[in-house]
Amino acid sequence: MGPVVVLVLGLSLLLLFSIWRQNSGRRKLPPGPTPFPIIGNILQVDIKDITKSLTKFSKVYGPVFTLYLGMKPTVVLHGYEAVKEALIDQGEEFSGRGRLPWAEKANRGLGIVFSNGHRWREMRRFSLMTLRNFGMGKRSIEERVQEEACCLVEELRKTKGSPCDPTFILGCAPCNVICSIVFQNRFDYKDQNFLNLMEKLNDNVKIVSSPWMQIYNVFPGLTDYLPGSHKTLLKNFDDINNYILKKINDHEESLDVNNPRDLIDCFLTKKKQEQENHKESSEFTNENLTMVASDLFGAGTETTSTTLRYSLLLLLKHPHVTAKVKEEIDHVIGRHRSPCMQDRSQMPYTDAVLHEIQRYIDLLPMNVPHAVTRDIKFRDYIIPKGTTILTSLTSVLHDPKEFPNPDKFDPGHFLDRSGNFKKSNYFMPFSAGKRICVGEGLARMELFLFLTTILQNFNLKPLVDPQDLDTTPVLNGLASVPPSYQLCFIPV
C-alpha cells in the first residue's frame, strides 16, 4: 500500500470519526448551527468579533445553544436569565474552568484562574483571605493603593501639561499595587526589572486578544508546530514565572513566620504549617505559589490598566460627565486630602460613572470559559461533564431591557430619579457565582481611588474635538482593548 493511499485512508477515517463523534454528541445538547467535520463551526464565526456572531446565533437558536469550535462542543449562554441560572443558581455545577489551550500550556492547571477541583478551592480561599488583609503586615491594601495614586499623580505632573499617551503610566500604577501586595515593595517607574515585567504583561494581553489566538485555541495540536505569537506568549509566561520564583527563593531565606511582609510570606508560612502537620498532598508548593502570583499579575494588572485607559478616553469624550464628577469630588473630598474608600458612599454620581464605564466597555466580552463539573440537566438539555461553557457577558451588560440604549454611554443607567446610586443585578463585569474574579474588591478600589485622585489634581484636555474621539475597541478577543489616544494633564 503506497504512502498516498495510506494518507487518503487516514484522512477519510479521521473525517468519518469526526462526523460520528459530532452527530452522537449533538443528540441531547442544545441546538446550534450544523458543524463541518473536524473544523466545526469556525467558518461561521467572525474570529475578529466573536460576540457579534454569538448574538446572531442567539436570535436563531435561543439563549442556550451549541457551537463546535473544532471537534468539541461548546455550550453558549446568552442573556441575563441563562447566565444567572448557570453561574448563580447552579453555581457549583458550572464552577469548572473550561479548556483554553494556551492557558493550559502556560499554567499547567496550577494557580487560581485556570485550576480546578480541590486545588482551585484551596488557592482561591488563600488568595481571598490574603487580599482581605489577613496577616498582610501593618499597612492595609487601601493604604498601598493610596500611596500608588500619589506616585501616579507625581508621574503625571512630570508631563507638564504636554500631550502624552497614558498607556504606560496607567499600566505602572496597578502593576505596582500587585507588586506591593506580592513582593512587599513597589518599584520606581524606571526600574528595569519592573519595565520588563510590564512589557511582558502588556504584550500578553494583546496576544491573547488577537484573532490568531482564537485559531490557536481551536487547533492547538496543529498550530503548536507553526511559528506565531503563541510562542512569544509562552516565552513571556516563562520569563515572568522565573522572575517570581527568584523572589520566592529570596523570601524563603528571610522568612519570619510571625511577621509576614506580603502574599509570598503568607503562602510560605502556610506551606510550613502544613509540612509541620505532615499533611500529605498539600497544594501549598512553590510551583503553585508561582502561578498564584503570576495569576494576580496577569488578571490584576492589564485588566485594571485597560479599564483606566478606557475611563480617561470616555471622560474626554463626555466632558459634561467629567465636570459633574469633579464637582462631586470638590464637594465631598475637597483639594487638601487624598480620596479614601469611605468617600464613595457619599458620591453617587461618581459611583454611577465608574459602573457605567465598566458596563459600557465590556472588558471581557465572553468571560473566561467555564466547564460543567458533572453531567447535568439544564433547560431540558443534557450537558456532559467537562463540556466548555461560554457565558456572553456582553449580552448581560448590554441588555436593552435593563439598560435603555445600551450602546450609549450614560451614567443614568445606575441612578434613580432622585440621583441616588442604583444597583443592578445585570452588572457582571467581574463575572458571577463561584468563579467571580478574586480581585474584584481590589479592582473596584483602584478604579475609584486612581480616577478620583487624577481628577482631583488635573483637568483632562483632549487633542481633538471630543466628538471626534473614537471609543471603538481595536481588539475584541478575550479582552476589549481601546484605541490609542493622547491627552494633556493640566494641573488644577
TrEMBL record:
Gene3D superfamilies: Cytochrome P450. One of its GO terms (cellular component) is endoplasmic reticulum membrane. It is found in: Endoplasmic reticulum membrane; Microsome membrane. Its cofactor is heme. GO terms for molecular function: heme binding; iron ion binding; oxidoreductase activity, acting on paired donors, with incorporation or reduction of molecular oxygen, reduced flavin or flavoprotein as one donor, and incorporation of one atom of oxygen. Keywords: Endoplasmic reticulum, Heme, Iron, Membrane, Metal-binding, Microsome, Monooxygenase, Oxidoreductase, Signal. This is unspecific monooxygenase. It comes from Dipodomys ordii (Ord's kangaroo rat). The lineage of its organism: Eukaryota, Metazoa, Chordata, Craniata, Vertebrata. The gene is LOC106001659.
